[in-house]
Specification:
Length: about 450
């Protein structure tokens, strides 16, 4: 049931009328179709649609919801949409908002992955992806600077980022261990990492703010019974496919490995897609051998061109992993099922985190130990993304490598610089940092330049 309409003095009634579920669904569908540009662009789009244009939620509450979603593993933009939808219309509204945010991207990535499997070895396609890979490297380097500017406060943050980079690049420490260690250090060194208190929220006339200030709806109130029912529903929905696939196909099948690996990723994907991609790229390429470095980079390029969260690149990984080892199925059918399985175990827990933790969000906001742990993890994410940039750069800009021995360490020294790729990456980086060309035009221009250089 939609909450009653509230019309504070001085504001026009239509702009503050409680949206029906149908009205909200149309808005979520619009946001899902237009959510290009990664988390920053997607959050900006939701801010414009929900805070500025419709005044469904106030500035302070929007930022508070975003902070909570950044505390969670998973794509923060998709979880923010789920959170606001849940505040407006309960679990049904959150489910609609979250699904519509990812559904366009899921369908588009399925089509792109299919075309990629069929045609990526054609000379024309190879030339396009040669330019696209260079642009993707520039995008990741730009992400290092953007995230670093926001996340690194003082020498503590720089030290954490540097330690995370060295742990991954030199020590080959698993990504989940880096995240866990950063969180524990943040908790132990709470005065260094705890963020300063947020300014008090100004009085506003947004719909949700007025309603929640007047009376918190039942679905937003903490309840042990509701929490247990949420766990009883969403844990089987999330992990049930893993149990079924293990029984049906065995512990060593690609289906079991996909479900198990990406279910584990859903627990540690702090810091956004760029952070988790560093670990996924190494595990999928080196550990499991599901795809090649070039195919991994191509997948990120495809994900950059679609609406929805950037972690849809994991769907591409699942598609190729299953397509390369289809068993008795056709490669395309296996890829299709592998992609859907990967998306399911990636996004299903996002709804669990919101529906389970949403009622307790106010307590989380004021818990300085948790916010300090998050700040330390966010600083470590900068080093994780830098490691991803180095990994991508080694495969995009160079044709090979030779070992460089430094005492007990053997570091790969790249050889064979690809000058056209380096030039394209530099131009793409300049376009992203110093022009208003935008992400999609930059990707398109680099793909076209790849044809010219070929």
């Amino acid at each position: 049931m939609s909450p009653p309409s509230v019309h504070p003095p001085g504001l026009d009634a239509p702009s503050l009328a409680a949206p029906t579920l149908g009205e909200a669904t149309r808005v979520w569908a619009r946001i899902g179709l237009l959510s290009f540009g990664g988390p920053a662009g997607q959050i900006a789009l939701m801010h414009r649609e929900l805070v500025e244009n419709r005044r469904w939620i106030g500035e302070a509450r929007f930022l508070h919801a975003l902070s909570y979603c950044m505390l969670l593993p998973g794509p923060e933009a998709q979880q923010l949409a789920t959170y606001v939808g849940w505040l407006l219309h309960g679990r049904r509204g959150g489910l609609i908002a979250g699904l519509l945010f990812i559904l366009p991207g899921v369908l588009i990535m399925l089509g792109l992955s299919t075309l990629y499997v069929l045609y990526h070895q054609a000379p024309l396609t190879g030339a396009l992806f040669h330019g696209l890979k260079a642009a993707v490297l520039a995008v990741v380097l730009d992400a290092v600077l953007r995230v670093g500017k926001r996340a690194l406060r003082g020498w503590h943050g720089l030290a954490m980022a540097g330690a995370a980079f060295l742990a991954l690049a030199v020590g080959h420490v698993p990504f989940p261990v880096v995240v866990l260690a950063a969180g524990l250090i943040g908790m132990a060194a709470r005065p260094a990492f705890a963020p300063t208190a947020a300014p008090a929220a100004p009085a506003g006339g947004a719909l949700l703010d007025r309603q929640l200030d007047a009376a918190v709806p039942a679905h937003a109130q903490p309840s042990r019974r509701r929490a247990l029912s949420t766990l009883a529903l969403w844990l089987p929905l999330w992990l049930g496919p893993l149990a079924v696939l293990r029984l049906a196909t065995g512990a060593d099948s690609v289906w079991t490995h996909l479900a198990l690996f990406f279910s584990g990723m859903a627990l540690v994907t702090f810091g956004g897609a760029y952070a988790v991609l560093s670990y996924v790229a190494q595990a999928a390429v080196t550990g499991y051998g599901w795809l090649t470095p070039g195919e991994m980079i191509d997948g990120l390029g495809l994900a950059e061109t679609t609406p929805g969260p950037l972690v849809l690149v994991l769907q591409h990984v699942g598609f190729l992993a299953a397509a390369h080892t289809p068993g008795t199925l056709s490669p395309l059918l296996a890829g299709f099922l592998g992609a859907l399985l990967t998306s399911w175990v990636t996004f299903a827990p996002c709804f669990l985190w919101i529906f389970l933790g949403g009622p307790y969000v106010e307590r989380v906001r004021t818990h300085t130990t948790i916010t300090a742990a998050l700040a330390a993890i966010t600083a470590a994410v900068v080093g994780v993304i830098l490691n991803l940039a180095v990994w991508f750069g080694g495969h995009v800009l160079f044709s090979g490598s030779r070992p460089l021995h430094l005492g007990p360490l053997a570091l790969p020294l790249p050889t064979g610089l690809d000058i056209p790729a380096a030039l394209l990456a530099l131009l793409a980086f300049i376009a992203l940092r110093h022009t208003r060309l935008g992400l999609l035009p930059t990707l398109a221009a680099c793909a076209a330049a790849g044809l010219v250089f070929s």
